[in-house]
């Protein structure tokens, strides 16, 4: 969808901003450009919508060389989100959002209806926030308006330069998650510039790690963290890349332990004997169909009369995560609920539990797989006690 062919930019004062850039962003893919200040990320992005012209090579969008397309027409096909947002201060939020549809000649009513729809999509109430002026919004809300405005004319391409840079870390993570949820439905082709490796890893389908004016590695977040291409990338992604990997490694069925189970409709006495026979202190409680309900302690079952059912003694499960969640999310839920393990579900069906030891194994295995360049499921894990 967006293709860089040996693109270079030397500014008139002789500064080489980028040199020999070649990479491709597939349709519907989100690629993050990450690197230290001044390495050429913004220059790269601005060459796509011709705010800056390259001095070498060419850029193709949908097969078309952008240098042959009228810049104004080109920019209408590309949403552009920048850190300073650039909202018009004397226009309402609704009118700001309707800017591009109005520019391309939509009738006022249609443009405003579309703007209202977009505000809702980014989590703002058009009735409440639409009539306000930008100064009457929080920083996070202004960023959302920036995203809504960029999406208003439904462009196939989104260019985002530090789009979440101006807000505090908590709001930032919130906006990142919201944008990812949005992207899962709108599937734009996105180039996102950031200097924050965490953001690059969290947001990108693939990441381009920039050195000075060139790309040092272009790959998936997992590979960049697990197998940095060279010493520069390794230094840039940091010594705590094992931790960062938590954010990109997903829970798989093989990572789960099967704990003792008890059924909602089972008599307490029978369940208690069964748990005691295997030395278990608790069981996960499931419905007859296998849906997660909660958990029950073996002691509680012991103390109950023979007539009680497991269901009347079970406690609701406070925390669980869906299969495919990241290890980071599972770990964070464990910490938040002060739990020694976390249940994993597929829809409502209980699959198993993830324990800290299994979480460590999953992490270790995925790092090993990337380092050796082999698929993760072909790697065997040996713990220290096996050695
Ligand atoms: N108009 C210009 N004239 C001369 N040099 C420029 C110009 N614009 C940018 N540069 C230089 O080109 C290099 C790349 O700049 P660019 O803005 O693309 O970097 P960046 O990676 O986006 O940095 P940051 O994260 O700080 O925004 C820098 O050395 C910068 O000083």
Automatic annotation (TrEMBL):
Keyword Nucleotide-binding recorded: yes
GO molecular-function term, one example from the UniProt record: ATP binding
Domain ABC transporter: 2-237
Gene3D superfamilies: P-loop containing nucleotide triphosphate hydrolases
Top-level taxonomic group: Bacteria
Pfam families: ABC_tran, CBS
InterPro entries hit by this protein: AAA+_ATPase (IPR003593), ABC_transporter-like_ATP-bd (IPR003439), ABC_transporter-like_CS (IPR017871), CBS_dom (IPR000644), CBS_dom_sf (IPR046342), P-loop_NTPase (IPR027417)
Alphabetical keyword list: ATP-binding, Nucleotide-binding, Transport
Listed SMART domains: AAA (SM00382)
Family: Belongs to the ABC transporter superfamily.
Protein name: ATP-binding cassette domain-containing protein
Source organism per UniProt: Streptomyces yaizuensis
Lineage, opening ranks: Bacteria, Bacillati, Actinomycetota, Actinomycetes, Kitasatosporales
